[in-house]
Design brief:
The protein has 2 domains: 140 residues, Rossmann fold (3-Layer(aba) Sandwich); 77 residues. The protein is built from 10 helices and 8 strands. The longest helix is centred in the first third of the chain and has 16 residues. The N terminus is likely disordered.
Length: 246
C-alpha cells in the first residue's frame, strides 16, 4: 500500500461523479480492534485491586460521564490529558490512591498495540486501486500512527483530534478531510462505529456515512436509515453498488 504525507491533497474533477469516490474511516473500533474499548478495563482493574466496592454498571456509567465531561473541556485537552483527569477523578470519588501515570502508560500501550481486524488490510489493498482513503480519529496522533504502522496500514492522510484541537462530531475534522480530498462532500463516505461522533459529524458536513457494527461491539447501531456494515467487505460492496447506473 502506498504512503502519502499528511498534507497530500488529491484534486479530482467534480463533474460527472457518481457514488462514493473517497473514503474516510474512524480508526479504533472500525479498522483496529483495541484501544478505547480496553480503557475501561484499566480503570475497573485499578478500582478492584484497591478493594473499592462498586457495581460494574455504576462504575461504567461514572467513567463514561467523566470522560464526556473532559472531552468537552474548554480549552481543548489531548486524549492523554482527558484520560489523566478522568482517572484522577474516578480514583478520588472512590477515595483510593492509584498510579495515574501507570494507567496512562497502559492506555498508550493499548492503543499502540491494537490489531487490525482480519479483513482490513486485504480490503484496503483492493480499494486503493480505485479510490483514496483517510482516517479521522478522536485520539492523539503518535499512538494512532504507531498502531497503523504496526499493522502495515497506510492512508492518503490522517487527521486526529490532537491536530485539529477538536473532537468528533466537530465539523472541523470532516471539513479538513473534504478539503484535502478535493471532492464534493457528497462523494465522500465516512465509516465509523459511533453514531454520535461519526455519523452525526459526517452527515452534518454533507458527507455520506455508514455505521460499522463489529460483532460484540457495545455500541447500538443507529435506528435511522444510516447504512450498516459489519466489516470492510460489506463497506466495499456498498461503495461498488453506489457506482452502478440507476
Amino acid at each position: 500500500m502506498g504512503t502519502a504525507g499528511a498534507g497530500s491533497r488529491l484534486i479530482v474533477a467534480a463533474r460527472n461523479l457518481r457514488g462514493v469516490r473517497a473514503l474516510t474511516f474512524d480508526a479504533f473500533g472500525s479498522l483496529l480492534d483495541g484501544g478505547p474499548k480496553d480503557v475501561y478495563s484499566i480503570v475497573a482493574r485499578e478500582v478492584t485491586q484497591a478493594r473499592a466496592t462498586i457495581e460494574d454498571r455504576t462504575l461504567r456509567r461514572q467513567w463514561t460521564e467523566v470522560l464526556d465531561k473532559h472531552v468537552r473541556s474548554d480549552p481543548f485537552l489531548t486524549y492523554r490529558e482527558v484520560h489523566s483527569r478522568a482517572f484522577m477523578e474516578i480514583f478520588q470519588r472512590r477515595g483510593i490512591s492509584r498510579d495515574v501515570e501507570g494507567c496512562l502508560d497502559k492506555l498508550d500501550s493499548a492503543f499502540k498495540h491494537a490489531r487490525a481486524y482480519p479483513e482490513v488490510r486485504p480490503v484496503l489493498q483492493e480499494l486503493e486501486k480505485e479510490i483514496p482513503f483517510a482516517v479521522i480519529s478522536n485520539t492523539d496522533t503518535q499512538p494512532l500512527l504507531e498502531a497503523l504502522h504496526r499493522n502495515g496500514l497506510d492512508f492518503t492522510f490522517v487527521i486526529t483530534s490532537e491536530e485539529e484541537q477538536a473532537y468528533k462530531p466537530s465539523l472541523a475534522l470532516f471539513k479538513r478531510a473534504i478539503r484535502y480530498l478535493g471532492l464534493p462532500a457528497a462523494n465522500v463516505l465516512h465509516v465509523g462505529d459511533s453514531y454520535g461522533e461519526d455519523i452525526v459529524g459526517a452527515t452534518a458536513a454533507g458527507m455520506a456515512a455508514a455505521f460499522i457494527a463489529r460483532p460484540g461491539a457495545l455500541r447500538e447501531p443507529p435506528k435511522d436509515a444510516t447504512p450498516i456494515a459489519h466489516d470492510l467487505n460489506e463497506v466495499r460492496d456498498l461503495i461498488r453498488r453506489s457506482w452502478e447506473v440507476s
